[in-house]
Structure formats: C-alpha cells, structure tokens
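Risk register update: the risk of archive-format incompatibility is retired. Evidence:
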Amino acid sequence: MYDVCIIGSGAGGGAMAYALSRGGMRVLVLEKGPWYTEKDFVHDEIKTVRRNFFTPSPEHEPHMLDGERSSMGWIACCVGGGTVHMAGYFYRLHPDDFRMESRFGSHSGISLADWPYSYEELEPYYTEVEQVIGISGQAGANPFEGSRSKPYPLPPMVDHPMAAWIDRAGKKLGFHTYPSPRAIISRDYGGRKACVYCHFCGSYGCEVGAKSSSLSSFLPLAQKTGKCEIRSGCMVREVEVGKDGRATGCVYIDPEGKEHRVEASIVCVSASGIES
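Archived output:
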C-alpha cells in the first residue's frame, strides 16, 4: 500500500515524486519506458534521433495519426520523460502572463483570463526548483523579467562565439540581450559533473548528467529520501476506483507481460499532456 502512485516520471511526475517523498509520503513511480543511464547516451544521430530510442516504434506499439501509423506526438518514453532530451531552456513566465485579462482587457474573438494566483505567489516555487535541480543563468540581465528572491544558483553557460555578434547588434539597435537560463549545470553541482560542451544536447541524453533532467535531479533526490520507489517498463492499463468514485490504485503490465495491481491512497496521472 502506497500513499501515492505516480504514473509517469517526466517533468511533472519527477517533481511530484521529489516533493511528496520529501514530505514523508511513500511514493511509487510507474514508468512505461526504459531506465536509461549515462552510459546509454551516445553521440549517434541515427540511433538516438532517427530511430526509436526515446519513442516507441509504431510497428511495436501502433499509434495512429490521420489513419496511418506514426510516432508524431510522442515526446519521450523513458524514465525522466522528455526532460532527458530537452535542450534545457528554462524561462519563468512573466508577471503579465498571470493577469492577461486584467492587463489587456476582453476583446472579441479571443479568450483571455487571469490565473487564480499571481507571479508573486509562484515565485518561491520557481526559486526552489532552480536551486534544487541546478539552473545556470544571470539574474537581472533581463530587465523585463519578474522580481526574484534569489539569483540563479550557477553562472551562465559559456557563450557560443556567434553570440558576441548578436550582443553587439542588439546593443546597436537598442535591444537587451542576455544569456538564456539553462537547465544545464555550468559548474559541478549537487554531486553532478558540469557540462563538457559536447555539442550534442537538444534531442540527446547527457552522458555526464549535467542536464538537469528529472532523470538526473528530481528522481535521484526522491530516492535518497528512502520513500520513493521507481519501476520502469511498467505500462499502466487501468486506474481503479472505489464505490465512491475515488482512485484506489492501478493495474499495470510489467516488462514480462505479467499483470500487477497496486493500492494507493492517491493516483497521479503525469504521463505527458499528449497521449494521457
């Protein structure tokens, strides 16, 4: 019996596993895909990007789009989800994004709404995530960003030489250029090694663990609490509910094709916005 069963281990599931296990709950994470490690990530475009490394083969797992088998729509299927191969650009929403209707008013043909909370209320959580997983950036470099309670925990990544041209052009035109905040550690951080600038980042896994993916950050931290268990290769086929309509657990199929049932007080479906 678990307090919480989380289906999916990506950006949402990993963060949830970390927060709940740290809070003392007994957490089970069920991930449909494989559990890759750093040694599995190589600079091979054919294997990693052009074949079915991060996404299931349409032949193995039929996925239909416009009447044909396709892998379009898939983000990733592995422990850590799409965060494993993300490029790691890590921006905060602007304060105005939370008050679109108040800021711009109502207009015919468009739907604007204010969020039920403000940037100021969310800001401490932005800061916590940046500190926990390791974000590289330069606080205050963007004059239009919202207020911050803490700077980024790590300095910006080293600029590409071409960025100097953009900086000069921007200054000449009166624009504000600044280093993009990245979910990649620019220095050793939290037991992880800094980026080695291999030039194979977006669409690839990180062979040194410098990318602040759920695989490298949230999930290991959740496991360290002793309260989080992760099972890979486990496809959930049903969320079970009681007579009151509330979830009581789920049924999943393991890598050998055997069916298992787990009980949990709470079930969280965090298997990506697409395909869930």
